[in-house]
């Protein structure tokens, strides 16, 4: 976590059976830094005595409220304990260290916006909807959930403009016809989507089929199914600039795994290239980017890389570690 802010949990509320909302304020009472729709913060969770867990959550409150930040946390039953800690241990009044906002899902306020949110993927979309409405843009929100009880922030969104919102809960409405819903897209439309991997994959496939129409797609992923083969490749050497230590990364291990093998602790979270926690500055060498965080422009610059999944095209990488 590059720059840490010391916050306190001002409010903890239940948003649905599986989601709690946290309202955070700075401990010193100052105003928070500004943030843009799509931004997330990283929470440092004292889950164990030895090593904190880092977890990322989208800011989903009002941008104009500089004294309070809001996040919503889904309890991941198969997770590694971060969301369970927030649900079961963290209480109002507790201290919580968080990062300054980062944004890998920027909203460009395009004239025509089509938002597609799946489940908890609504969180980065809420401020985008508010920004689109405030700017007088032509927008529509498609909000999908498995169960009607899983919808959160629905009342706030409907107060923005309920006529521009379509909801679909598959437990009561059946299978959703995504292609049918996207048929009216044109070249001026940008689709912003956050949700489970099958939803994002369906959008990507449909966009490719409709390449002649030319609508754009901007995605925020919170998980991917990683094929172990995708983490493998040619072996190479990583040199750590600060210690001068060189470590061989084998064909079947990641840089992160090689560092851990050598007893070097590096901050990480998702370990599948989606969260950005392990982003590391590249001093020299050519990375082979395999993450879902960096934009095409950032990949070309080769200034940073996600060491949990990305590898090297050169024989050696020198990293700022
Ligand atoms: S740990 Fe999440 S991108 Fe590497």
From TrEMBL:
<keyword id="KW-0560">Oxidoreductase</keyword>
<dbReference type="InterPro" id="IPR050415">
    <property type="entry name" value="MRET"/>
</dbReference>
<keyword id="KW-0408">Iron</keyword>
<feature type="domain" description="2Fe-2S ferredoxin-type">
    <location>
        <begin position="236"/>
        <end position="321"/>
    </location>
</feature>
<dbReference type="InterPro" id="IPR039261">
    <property type="entry name" value="FNR_nucleotide-bd"/>
</dbReference>
<dbReference type="InterPro" id="IPR001433">
    <property type="entry name" value="OxRdtase_FAD/NAD-bd"/>
</dbReference>
<dbReference type="Pfam" id="PF00111">
    <property type="entry name" value="Fer2"/>
</dbReference>
<keyword id="KW-0285">Flavoprotein</keyword>
<dbReference type="InterPro" id="IPR017927">
    <property type="entry name" value="FAD-bd_FR_type"/>
</dbReference>
<dbReference type="InterPro" id="IPR001041">
    <property type="entry name" value="2Fe-2S_ferredoxin-type"/>
</dbReference>
<dbReference type="Pfam" id="PF00175">
    <property type="entry name" value="NAD_binding_1"/>
</dbReference>
<dbReference type="InterPro" id="IPR036010">
    <property type="entry name" value="2Fe-2S_ferredoxin-like_sf"/>
</dbReference>
<dbReference type="InterPro" id="IPR012675">
    <property type="entry name" value="Beta-grasp_dom_sf"/>
</dbReference>
<dbReference type="GO" id="GO:0046872">
    <property type="term" value="F:metal ion binding"/>
</dbReference>
<feature type="domain" description="FAD-binding FR-type">
    <location>
        <begin position="2"/>
        <end position="108"/>
    </location>
</feature>
<dbReference type="InterPro" id="IPR017938">
    <property type="entry name" value="Riboflavin_synthase-like_b-brl"/>
</dbReference>
<keyword id="KW-0479">Metal-binding</keyword>
<dbReference type="InterPro" id="IPR006058">
    <property type="entry name" value="2Fe2S_fd_BS"/>
</dbReference>
<dbReference type="GO" id="GO:0051537">
    <property type="term" value="F:2 iron, 2 sulfur cluster binding"/>
</dbReference>
<keyword id="KW-0001">2Fe-2S</keyword>
<protein>
    <submittedName>
        <fullName>Oxidoreductase</fullName>
    </submittedName>
</protein>
<dbReference type="GO" id="GO:0016491">
    <property type="term" value="F:oxidoreductase activity"/>
</dbReference>
<keyword id="KW-0411">Iron-sulfur</keyword>
């Amino acid at each position: 976590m590059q720059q840490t802010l010391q916050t306190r949990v001002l409010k903890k509320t239940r948003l649905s059976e599986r989601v709690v909302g946290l309202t955070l304020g700075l401990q010193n009472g100052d105003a928070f830094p500004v943030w843009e729709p799509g931004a997330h913060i990283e929470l440092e969770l004292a889950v164990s005595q030895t090593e904190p867990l880092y977890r990322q959550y989208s800011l989903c409150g009002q941008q104009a409220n500089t004294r309070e930040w809001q996040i919503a946390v889904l309890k991941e039953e198969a997770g590694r304990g971060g969301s369970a800690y927030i649900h079961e241990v963290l209480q109002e009044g507790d201290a919580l260290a968080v990062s300054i906002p980062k944004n890998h899902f920027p909203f460009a306020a395009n004239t025509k916006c089509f938002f597609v949110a799946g489940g908890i993927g609504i969180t980065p979309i809420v401020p985008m909807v508010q920004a689109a409405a405030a700017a007088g843009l032509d927008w529509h929100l498609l909000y999908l959930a498995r169960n009607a009880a899983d919808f959160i922030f629905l009342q706030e969104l409907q107060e923005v403009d309920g006529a521009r919102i379509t909801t679909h809960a598959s437990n009561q409405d059946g299978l959703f016809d995504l292609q049918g819903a996207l048929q009216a897209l044109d070249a001026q439309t940008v689709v912003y989507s956050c949700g489970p991997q099958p939803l994002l994959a369906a959008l990507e496939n449909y966009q490719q089929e409709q390449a002649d129409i030319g609508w754009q797609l901007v995605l925020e992923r919170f998980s991917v199914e990683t094929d172990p083969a995708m983490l493998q490749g040619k072996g190479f050497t990583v040199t750590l600039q600060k210690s001068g230590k060189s470590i061989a990364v084998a064909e079947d291990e990641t840089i992160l795994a090689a560092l851990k093998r050598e007893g070097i602790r590096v901050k990480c979270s998702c370990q599948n290239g989606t969260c950005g926690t392990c982003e590391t500055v590249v001093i020299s060498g050519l990375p082979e980017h395999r993450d879902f965080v960096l934009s095409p422009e950032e990949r070309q610059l080769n200034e940073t890389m996600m060491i949990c999944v990305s590898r090297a095209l050169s024989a050696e990488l020198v990293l700022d570690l």
